[in-house]
Amino acid sequence: MSKKNSRNTKSKIVDAAWCLFYEQGYDDTTVEDIIFESGTSKGSFYHYFAGKDALLSSLSYLFDEKYEEIEEQIDPEMGSFDKLMFYNDELFKMIENRISIDLLARLYSSQLITKSEKHLLDRNRTYYKLLRQTISVGQESGELRSDVSANEIVKAYALCERAILYDWCICNGEYALREYSKRMMPIFMSEFRKK
What we know:
Blueprint (H helix, E strand, L loop, with lengths): L2 H22 L6 H8 L3 H7 L10 H15 L6 H19 L2 H13 L12 H15 L9 H21 L6 H13 L6
Helix pairs in contact: 1-2, 4-5, 5-7, 5-9, 6-8, 7-8, 8-9
């Protein structure tokens, strides 16, 4: 199987699973439902995932796909700081529309207790690569501070996003995630703009 077909198959499974989790709930979605909805086979499913629980960590994969999609849409003339805020806004819009609070909470819980790979912290994810690239360009252009490393700014950005998502989960979505983040992310990240 070619790398592209392999990625498309995994992507179909992940997309179908998260749509079903959102529509039916995690507990009411079966592996058979996911296989049927994705149009794949049982063998393909188990090639990529040990079971339904393994799909929880695939949320980071779904986020990365969203970032790839956003990168294709973004205005190349936009400044680095505005790009960072745009990435956040688009991701949180997707989360509000496609990911239930319960599933997001399960993901965070699983990342806290897992002894294996913590997918959210994998620095090879598209998420981290895109942030590093955007921040590096901002530093080179003089828009963002260069006395702080790009990796430190990436870490702060990711920390702010996780903090907002965590708070939204423990508050059981009592506020609009996207609107709150639109107000708070620029405040949190403004320290990294060059004065």
